[in-house]
């Protein structure tokens, strides 16, 4: 699993498209619901984009603990999909919303908190983590043979 993060409009999508030109994409920005199982995916290279949007939906419908449990279930299922075939690779893109001014609204603070925890979980599980700022990548966690 490869986790790619960075600020909004900082070139994550372009960097991933250049790095993984033949990938299949599922994007929250295109109103695709967060997939729980990936069994219907017939490609070996899959990009999940906009996870912060899916986390917003979770935090709008659940408290922090429930959101984290649901997130961990999805993350585990995604990892299982990837591990089921050695040719599979999952790339997950998430915009970092955890920096800057803390939101005044309770719902937005919860979303920010849930997203921060989810990104920590994802970074721990991912073999590789890259931070993209202004189109330039910085590897935070180097992977194996990628």
What does this structure look like?
With 146 residues, the chain is an alpha/beta fold. The protein has one domain (2-140): 3-Layer(aba) Sandwich (Rossmann fold). 40% of the residues lie in helices and 23% in strands. It is built from four helices and six strands; from the N terminus they run E-H-E-E-H-H-E-H-E-E. The protein has helices spanning 12-19, 51-61, 64-83, 106-125, and strands at 2-6, 24-27, 45-49, 89-95, 128-133, 136-141. The chain has a six-stranded mixed beta sheet with strand order 2-3-4-1-5-6, sandwiched between helices. Helix 2 (51-61) crosses helix 3 (64-83) and helix 2 packs across helix 4. It is globular, with a radius of gyration of 15 Å. The relative contact order is 0.25. The model has no long low-confidence stretch (mean pLDDT 95).
Q: Any idea what the shape is? A: globular
Mean pLDDT: 95
Question: How would a textbook summarize the main sheet?
Answer: 6 strands, mixed
DSSP helical segment count:
4
What Rg do the Cα atoms give? Answer: 15 Å
- SSE order in H/E notation? EHEEHHEHEE
Taken together, the total number of domains comes to 1
Give the name of the CATH architecture: 3-Layer(aba) Sandwich
Task: Determine the strand fraction and express it as a percent band.
Answer: 15-25%
CATH topology: Rossmann fold
Helix content: 40-55%
């Amino acid at each position: 699993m490869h986790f790619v993060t960075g600020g909004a409009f900082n070139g994550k999508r372009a960097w991933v498209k250049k790095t993984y030109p033949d990938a299949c994409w599922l994007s929250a920005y295109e109103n695709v619901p967060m997939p729980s199982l990936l069994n219907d995916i017939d490609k070996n290279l899959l990009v999940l984009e906009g996870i912060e949007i899916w986390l917003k939906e979770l935090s709008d419908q659940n408290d922090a603990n429930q959101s984290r449990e649901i997130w961990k279930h999805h993350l585990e299922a995604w990892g299982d999909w990837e591990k089921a075939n050695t040719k599979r690779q999952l790339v997950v893109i998430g915009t970092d919303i955890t920096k800057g001014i803390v939101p005044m609204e309770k719902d937005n603070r919860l979303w920010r908190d849930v997203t921060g925890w989810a990104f920590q979980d994802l970074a721990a599980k991912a073999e590789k983590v890259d931070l993209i700022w202004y189109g330039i990548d910085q590897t935070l966690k180097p992977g194996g043979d990628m």
